[in-house]
Amino acid sequence: MTRTWQISDVTEAARARIATARLAAAYGVPPVERARLTASLGAQLRSCLTKGGTWRLTLETGTASRAGARAGEEVLHAVVTPSPEAAAAGQPPWRVTVPCPEAVADVGVGAVADDPAELAQALLGADEDTTLVLERLAEQEGLVDFHREELQQTNQGVVALHAELDAAGRAQREAFAAERKARTEAENARRRLTFLADASAVLTASLDHHEIVRRLPELLVPEYAASVDVWLFDQDGDRPGPAHAAAAVVAARTGRPQYAAAHPGGLPGVDDQPPSALAPDRPLLCIPLPTRQAPLGVVTLSPPGERWDPDDAVMLVELTRRASIAIDHAQRYQHNRDIAETLQRALLTELPAPPGLTLAARYLPATHGLNIGGDWYDAFRQPDGGVIAVVGDVTGHGLRAAVMMSQLRTALRAYAVDGGSPGQLLTRLHTFLHHLQPDLFATAVIARFHPDDPTMTWAAAGHPPPVLRTPDGGVRTLGAKPGAMLGIPLRQEIADHTVPMAPGSTLALYTDGLVERRARGIDPGIARLAEALGSFGPAELDADLEGSADGILRPMLSDSERDDDVCLLLCHLSGTD
Question: Is omega for the bond preceding 222 within 30 degrees of 0, making it cis?
Answer without folding.
Answer: yes
